[in-house]
């Protein structure tokens, strides 16, 4: 039951983009097209889940035994995340060059995506076990992907709408994100 509660909390209640406002750069940059949003969402989900696994192991078997868990965890976590992003970038470039080009600069920015570092840090400070960390990482990525897909659907619809010039592109994207964030805030009353 605890794993289910962690999953629901990660996807809806504590959604990184719409509730915690982490990872907004790819949210606004890649959400213009659904295909790019799916690719970015899957990439971030993979990195979050893998980073949750490796950072838990690094924290448990390297940082804690040497008494470094209070001082070196951010450096260690960033190194793990950077390594996985490089792996993802190479795989996407090899398997799907068009997706690689459509993501542009946002793919390397996963390395510095605060949502990915945030999930590893949340796992550490909540003292999650390995299965709990994996569920939190995977479901945080699912929540991230859900927010990207919702925003891409809205932005694709908005391209066909008659919007005043001063509201086109980013201003209307921020207004749409605000409305989605308000709807996700309604999940806050659920027991995490």
* Low-pLDDT sequence parts: none
- Largest sheet: number of strands, sense, barrel closure: none
Number of strands: 0
Q: Which percent range describes the beta-strand content?
A: under 5%
* Rg (C-alpha, Å): 17 Å
Shape: globular
Topology:
Blueprint lengths: L1 H12 L10 H6 L4 H30 L9 H23 L1 H7 L10 H12 L4 H30 L10 H16 L7
Helix pairs in contact: 1-7, 3-4, 3-6, 3-7, 4-5, 4-6, 6-7, 7-8
Describe the structure.
- The protein has 8 helices and no strands.
- By secondary structure, it is mainly α.
- It has a domain at 28-149.
- The longest helix is centred in the first third of the chain and has 30 residues, at 34-63.
- The protein is globular, with a radius of gyration of 17 Å.
- The model has no long low-confidence stretch (mean pLDDT 88).
């Amino acid at each position: 039951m605890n794993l289910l509660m962690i999953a629901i909390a990660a996807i809806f209640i504590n959604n990184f983009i719409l509730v915690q406002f982490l990872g907004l750069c790819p949210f606004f940059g890649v959400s213009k097209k659904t295909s790019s949003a799916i690719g970015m969402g899957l990439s971030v989900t993979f990195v979050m889940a893998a980073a949750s696994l490796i950072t838990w192991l690094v924290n448990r078997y390297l940082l804690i035994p040497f008494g470094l868990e209070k001082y070196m965890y951010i450096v260690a976590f960033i190194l793990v995340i950077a390594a996985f992003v490089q792996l993802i970038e190479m795989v996407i470039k090899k398997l799907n060059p068009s997706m690689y080009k459509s993501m542009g600069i946002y793919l390397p920015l996963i390395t510095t995506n605060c949502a990915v570092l945030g999930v590893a840090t949340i796992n550490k400070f909540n003292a999650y076990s390995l299965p709990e960390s994996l569920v939190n990482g995977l479901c945080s990525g699912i929540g991230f992907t859900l927010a990207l897909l919702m925003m891409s659907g809205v932005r694709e619809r908005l391209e066909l709408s008659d919007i005043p010039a001063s509201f086109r592109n980013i201003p209307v994207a921020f207004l749409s994100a605000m409305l989605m964030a308000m709807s996700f805030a309604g999940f806050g009353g659920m027991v995490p």
